Amino acid sequence: MTWLDRPIWNCAAALALGAAAAGLIALVSLLAPARSQAGEAMAALAAGAVGALAAPAPEGFAGSAACASCHPTQTRDWLASQHAHAMARATTETVLGDFGDVRVAHKGSSARFYRDGARYMVETEGADGKTAAFEVTETFGLHPLQQYLVSFADGRKQALPFAYDTRSATEGGQRWFHLYPDQAIAPSDPLHWTGAQQNWNFMCAECHSTALRKNYEAAADRFETRFSEISIGCEACHGPARGHVDWANGARDPSWPHKGFAAVAASRPAPDWAIDPETGSPAHGVSRPAGDEVETCARCHSRRSILSENWRPGQPLTETHLPTFLSEGLFEADGVMRDEVFNDHAFKQSLMYARGVTCSDCHEPHSAKLRAPGAAVCGQCHLPERFETAAHTGHAPGPNGPDCISCHMPARTYMVVDRRHDHSFRIPRPDVSARLGTPNACNDCHADKPARWAAEAVERWHGPERKGFQTWAEAFHDARRGDPAARDALISLASTPTVPAIVRATAIAELQGFPSTASETAQRKALADPDPLVRIAALQGQAGAPLDVRWRRVSPLLADPVAGVRIEAANQLADQPTSTLSKDDRARLEAAWGEYEAAQRVNADRAEARANLGNFLQRQGDAAGAEGEFLAGLKLRPADPALTVNLADLYRLQGRERELQEVLRRAIAVHHDAAAPHHALALALIRQRNHAEALEQLAQAVRLAQGNARYAYVYAVALNAMGRPVESSAVVASALQRNPDDADLLTLALNEALRSGDIRRARALVARLMLLRPDDADLARLDARLR
Questions:
Q1: Residue 39 — very low, low, confident or very high, per pLDDT cuts 50/70/90?
Q2: What's the pLDDT tens digit per position in 555-597?
């Protein structure tokens, strides 16, 4: 996981699909039934509620109003969508929350929502911990909740921690609630509403507005953020339309490419969704071109970081963004969504995606509504009479029985009230849950029963052979546990072209924890994978290779057609000297370096981007530039543990031990529960021969990060070096309980077994290590001697 791939917190309320709330209905009622469709659409746009083009408009943008006269039906549908109202100025027409002098409290914090004339106000705790009054300047989202933004003089907009539940009272709505109900959030916490994780400019704006330019001024630490429309307009998906409007207003010359658009999403061939009566499902799929409409939707409906603001339709997401992998904490081992990851990653794991299905096959693209209500949307391609039966579901059909959605699209609730369905369309596998602890749709309903009970029921209905397109749960589960048995399964996933690309990429990423000749071969082959995300994962796997090997493998990708790949190639070759390169190679490398730096500068308002760039410059030998970036990051996030350790490492290389210890002790004083500064300080103290305090700091690091095998390993080595072998052995034994497959800890245990003459234990440890290091010749020789 990269620094920029950190959790995205409260940025999706307006993107949830569903029925519009009362305020939206009021807006749409502006459309008079007696008018023409074009007139209806233009009336709503002219009312100024939505679709207003910012002045001055960005070059090439025409605004949604320019689309209405030729596309009245689409405009009318869009006006009724949540996209059209994802963000709005706070007015009596847009604010759905109760600002009638309402007080709410949460774990020591509170807020009072009230009116001051035409202004909507909140009285709550500010960044300094003191209660103050703030004006709500914008609404954010509609249903099932609405958030509110406060604007500050430095251009920041911040999302308040209290949101309004816009559902009906009978559904539990029409109330204020806190978005983090189980947490008390102090003003110093990045999750505080005034902090970095609630900053609209970075966290939310790109996907709630059109043609966003963040315009962060690093020197002044302020924003001049601009957009063409405050909400999600036509050009957010179709790209700038001025050329298209000119084409439509002119002769509509057929020779104009894309009818005046600079770029369009790639169109798939006409699909044949004819249903096979034998299976009840379509017999044929359709090829999927690169840059199709799914990539357009993925720009916002995915968990990703941003590389560039120059998005346009028709290109892969990795041209401008870096999607996350199916990482632990974000996804379950089987790929089901866990954290707030939106829909794209799940959908791209599905058989439907593999067969060529797109978002608009199920969702009307302009209203975002389902093309048929509920599970009836599945009946477009699957015979209901075959699947709505007890033979298929194991339940009697009827209004209380399970349907396609409840079984194949399990739901999780985010932001307290926002229920979202997983889009991987998987067959329920309670048998996998029984083995691995993953959730499953059966036990979502039968929560009082164990997974084994559900698995036995499915076996009675459908026999012992389990089917399903998604088959990677065990591989990722074992990989996350560090089990060497995962290696072969990961290699198989990464090497199978029919496995979804997001899974292949994740398998390649996980292989970094299982070094071997076979793993290296799989990673090297993946450098030529047709999917750019797989190539990015394979590039990341080259990090530990010698520079000459890295250059030979990575340099061809400096000319990759996808920017995200070139940027990662540049990162892997940051330490490549240019003096020995040919003119052409030097030009390609320096161009890619420029792209990498530009990608970090896009996010210069974030401490993590400063850390990325600082590490990059340090590897290039630019110590002064690296220090500047680390210090800038620490200004944004004072005493941040990770940034502090980065800076301390730079000072170590420069021999600045006094400053190194100062910054580490400052971070420890601020972040009492952060292990990394303690560990880094201990290493500095060892260099200063202050062994007593060094051991104290190492012990503290292990206590604070009990799952960190490296910290335990270093502590155990230090204890042994200080003549305390019994304590060292205890640390190793304790750490191995939490990390049973860590090679370094197993090596320490092996050394102890050999010293004590415990041949039986030594043999067992060697056997375990050989699974982790199958190419280690020394281990093989030791194994032979022990036998």
A1: low
A2: 999 999 999 999 999 999 999 999 999 999 999 999 999 999 9
Is residue 244 within 8 Å of residue 267, measured between CB atoms? no
Q: What share of the chain is helix, strand, coil (3-state, %, to 5)?
A: 45, 10, 40
Q: Pick from 377, 359, 228, 369: which is nearest to 299 by CA?
A: 359
Inform me whether the pLDDT recorded for 12 exceeds 50: no
Angle between helices 725-738 and 709-721 (to 10 degrees): 170
Contacting residues for 422 by C-beta, under 8 A, at least 6 apart: 336, 337, 346, 409, 410, 411, 412
User: H helices of 376-531, where?
Assistant: 384-387, 390-393, 404-408, 430-436, 441-445, 451-462, 473-481, 486-495, 501-510, 517-526
Strands 216-217 and 222-223, sheet pairing: antiparallel
3-class secondary-structure state, position 256: coil
Q: How confident is the model at residue 290 (pLDDT cuts 50, 70, 90)?
A: very high
Distances (CA, A) of 203 to 29, 207, 212, 323, 331: 32, 9, 12, 15, 20
SS3 (DSSP) at 541:
coil
Q: Is the dihedral of CA 232, 234, 237, 241 positive or negative?
A: negative
Contacts of 490 (CB under 8 A, 6+ apart): 475, 479, 507, 508, 510, 511, 514, 519, 522
CA distance 301 to 58: 24
pLDDT value, residue 1: 35
User: How far is the C-alpha of 660 from the C-alpha of 684, rounded, in Å?
Assistant: 8
Per-residue pLDDT tens digits for 317-334: 999 999 999 999 999 999
Q: Is the pLDDT of residue 50 over 80?
A: no
Structure tokens at 297: 């939707």
The CA-atom distances, in angstroms, between 738 and each of 112, 478, 706 are 47, 14, 8
Instruction: Give me the pLDDT at residue 38, please.
Output: 57
CA separation for the pair 716, 749 (Å, rounded): 10
Least confident of 40-54, 521-535, 571-585, 596-610: 40-54
Query: What distance separates the 2 farthest-apart alpha carbons in the chain?
Result: 95
What angle do the packed helices 563-572 and 532-540 form, to 10 degrees?
A: 10
Distance CA 715, CA 751 (A): 16
The SS3 of residue 556 is helix
Residue 647 host element (H or E)? helix 641-653
SS3 category, 270: coil
What is d(CA 629, CA 631) in angstroms, rounded to the nearest whole number? 5
pLDDT confidence tier of residue 48, bands split at 50, 70 and 90: low
DSSP 210: B
Q: Which of 308, 64, 138, 309 is nearest to 211 (CA)?
A: 309
Average pLDDT on 347-363 reads 97
550 has pLDDT over 90: yes
- What pLDDT does residue 298 have? 97
Sorted by sequence, the CB contacts under 8 Å of residue 164 that are 6+ apart come out as: 96, 97, 98, 145, 146, 148, 175, 176, 177
Dist CA 365 CA 42 (whole Å): 20
Token readout for 712 is 């335990």
Task: Please report which helix (H) or strand (E) contains residue 102, including its range.
Answer: strand 102-106
**Residues 45, 65: contact at Cβ < 8 Å?**
yes
Between CA 304 and CA 320 the distance in angstroms is 10
Residues 642, 611 contacting (CB under 8 angstroms) = yes
pLDDT of residue 54: 86
Scanning the structure block, which residue is given the tokens 């012990």?
699
* Packing angle of the helix pair 675-687, 641-653 (nearest 10 deg): 20
Number of Cα atoms under 13 Å in the Cβ half of residue 452 = 1
Looking at the chain, the whole-number percentage of residues with pLDDT higher than 70 is 94
